Prior knowledge:
Number of strands: 8
Distance between the termini: 65 Å
Largest sheet: 5 strands, mixed
Low-confidence stretches: none
Order of helices and strands: HHHHHHHHEEHEEEHEHHEEHHHH
Strand content: 5-15%
Number of helices: 16
Radius of gyration: 29 Å
Strand order of the largest sheet: 1-5-3-8-7
Mean pLDDT: 82
Structural class: alpha+beta
Amino acid sequence: xxxxxxxxxxxxxxxxxxxxxxxxxxxxxxxxxxxxxxxxxxxxxxxxxxxxxxxxxxxxxxxxxxxxxxxxxxxxxxxxxxxxxxxxxxxxxxxxxxxxxxxxxxxxxxxxxxxxxxxxxxxxxxxxxxxxxxxxxxxxxxxxxxxxxxxxxxxxxxxxxxxxxxxxxxxxxxxxxxxxxxxxxxxxxxxxxxxxxxxxxxxxxxxxxxxxxxxxxxxxxxxxxxxxxxxxxxxxxxxxxxxxxxxxxxxxxxxxxxxxxxxxxxxxxxxxxxxxxxxxxxxxxxxxxxxxxxxxxxxxxxxxxxxxxxxxxxxxxxxxxxxxxxxxxxxxxxxxxxxxxxxxxxxxxxxxxxxxxxxxxxxxxxxxxxxxxxxxxxxxxxxxxxxxxxxxxxxxxxxxxxxxxxxxxxxxxxxxxxxxxxxxxxxxxx
Length: 430
């Protein structure tokens, strides 16, 4: 049963990020509501309203048919235009910023819900249209259902206005960066909360039993509670070898177990691990660093040449590094005050190098961006860190940045700024 729930959870994680998820749910709701109203019409709801509140009911079949036909036509046109706007947003984000941003934009729930409102209203109006008899008397016309169709159409108009407002914000780089940061911050805060306990110890795993992956894809996550229960029931400890977000190839080591496991136990355990063909920040905070880094690199590329966007992105990157400095390089998962799982994570040194290596390539010739990065290093050096080694990593990367910039810049004033940055960061340079 646990395996089934794990598979359902994995499938839900994958489909939730698809643009069709919420529209499909809302469309089914609209279809169901149409059948409910058709049932109520057969029970005489419109007849009751004609007798008591006639103003709420249409009593002419031709008028009802015309109104619903107009509503359906208008809603379809509005939905097509809205889909076109979404495609325009995705194309612009991919061209100007980074293709890696697309999964996050596609999974925007607001856009999905608005498109779902359109689709559910269209299906509702279509099925109510089928139930109208133009030649019938006023008691045979689903007048109240038609009125609801009109109200749903009006709601779609207001949803369309909100959609235009939201899409105009979503296409702005500050909004995109803010979404990435908030998602990554939420993920990192959860990890930091798990590290609030006293320092934990885990035995060496070099000689443990290794088990290989049975599929390839991006390693998204694993069902923590299920793996913890597995470890407790089988009296073993587990080390998760790949880093979350890493593309795992079939047949490479995935886990190490202190106790040797049977084939059935291995098969059960592997079912708790989730793989996907796309990456989401909500599953892996390291992806946020990658996305913001790519935005900076794209903004500073000769084809775009937008240093303002790079400066804004560096601000968000600085805050993410501040949060990462509070986290240890090793992560453990406990249950009942006992450590059962060790999770491999990207070290602070590797993360800092990977980010700065890309940024240096495109930004070392721009003194304004270099000075902004120097300010980032100075700020991070004054922040609290989980390990003292983090400060040395910052100094090494700052030194590499200033060395690359010095080799690219010839202006005397720019070189003076680099010297002042080096003094401020307490770097010893030749």
